Amino acid sequence: MHEVVAATGLAFIEKLGIGQLIFALRGLGYCVVGPKLEQNAIIYAELESADELPIGWSDVQEPGRYRLRKNDTESYFAYNVGPHSWKQFLFPPRLTVATADRCEDGWRMAVPEAKVPKYAFLGVRACELAAIAIQDRVFMRGETVDTTYRDRRESAFLIAVQCTQAASTCFCSSMGTGPCCSAGFDLALTEIDEGFVIETGTEAGAAVLAKLDHHPATPAHSRAAAIERQKAVDQISKHMNTEDIRDLLMRNLEHPRWDSVAERCLSCSNCTMVCPTCFCSTVSEVADLQGDHVERQRTWDSCFNPDFSYIAGGSVRKDTRSRYRQWLTHKLASWHDQFDSSGCVGCGRCIAWCPVGIDLTEEVSLIRSEPSEKRTLPVIQPSDSKVCRIPREKT
């Protein structure tokens, strides 16, 4: 998280300048993470050179479907968001938070002092910038700060890439999170045929740009970049009406649609795993075979797991209906009570990676079109103190 600077003129680099950018960042000690072809998907992994980028590749995404597609271009970033999000680098899926070792004089407890990785994220989309901002609020702006997240986040360098196409599952415009990047980045790139038009967002971004062979963008470059960005705007076909959505869902906790979606939902937790904002976790004790070394590990969890809501006497949410309702109403409704924003950024991952193609925008639309208005739980009003008043599960 670097100091923001006032907008300056746009810069331009040739296509080969991406390799120079990666080289410069690595020279500054950053681990550069970006898009990469692996396991028939475009994922995020460490990059050593620009040759590892998915040059000439795109993807096709629909409810329950994701496929790679070869383009007839040499575009570096002509793809939509895939199964990975930047969450995995800032909020690790598995983290050892404490250890205990048996010694002659008893047990010795310790907190691991892990080295904080210095990440540079290449290819961050507008919806993902919004997701990172949401997790900043969750992990850094409340009464309790997650120090692992904070340390990784504060040292991260973000290179945004403007969307120039949209998948059929994208609905970021409905959530006010895209498709255009406007803030939250160190550098923002728009890919055009000749190269990349670059906007600087922070002093750190300006310092990195100074290390590249660049020159001011021409009016022709700026026009071409604007045309490319408009393509993504025009291609977005999925929408979700968010007007009064919090109260709409909380008024319809007994809507028959919850039963209908439960008949299809596998409670597999795919939607929460690919979601860039979901943050539920659990803690477990893991011992070695001799019982002399024990680690306390924090791992990602999901409200779709039956054990997640387990308390003395059993699970609070014993069926798929209640678990799906919890996920959707938290994401779109009670998240506002906790964090003053929606928990959804409209990236569409949960739609594409749901094995049965459940589309949350359709579920909301159907509830809105035929509201039952039969609630059995009180609607919790937002607190003026901005402190969550809803009983919270382990997070």
The helical percent reads 25-40%
Number of strands: 16
Computed over alpha carbons, the radius of gyration is: 22 Å
Q: Please, how many helices? A: 13
Through-space gap between termini: 24 Å
Taken from the alpha-carbon principal axes, the silhouette is globular
Run of helices and strands = EHEEEEHEEEHHEHEEHEHHHHEEEEHHH
Unreliable segments (pLDDT under 50, ≥5 consecutive)? 376-395
What spatial order of strands do you see in the largest sheet?
A: 3-2-8-9-10-11-1-12
Helix/sheet category: alpha+beta
Output mean pLDDT: 91
Q: Beta-strand percentage?
A: 15-25%
Largest sheet: 8 strands, mixed
Q: What does this 3D model show about the protein?
A:
By secondary structure, this protein is an alpha+beta fold. It has helices at 17-27, 87-90, 126-140, 147-154, 172-175, 203-209, 219-235, 245-251, 257-264, 270-274, 320-339, 349-352, 360-369; strands at residues 11-14, 31-38, 41-46, 57-62, 65-70, 94-103, 106-110, 119-124, 157-161, 187-191, 195-200, 215-216, 281-287, 293-300, 310-311, 314-315. The strands form four sheets. It has an eight-stranded mixed β-sheet. It has a four-stranded antiparallel β-sheet with strand order 7-6-14-13, with no helix packed on it. The protein has a two-stranded antiparallel ribbon with strand order 4-5. Strand 6 (94-103) and strand 7 (106-110) form a beta hairpin. 39% of the residues are buried.
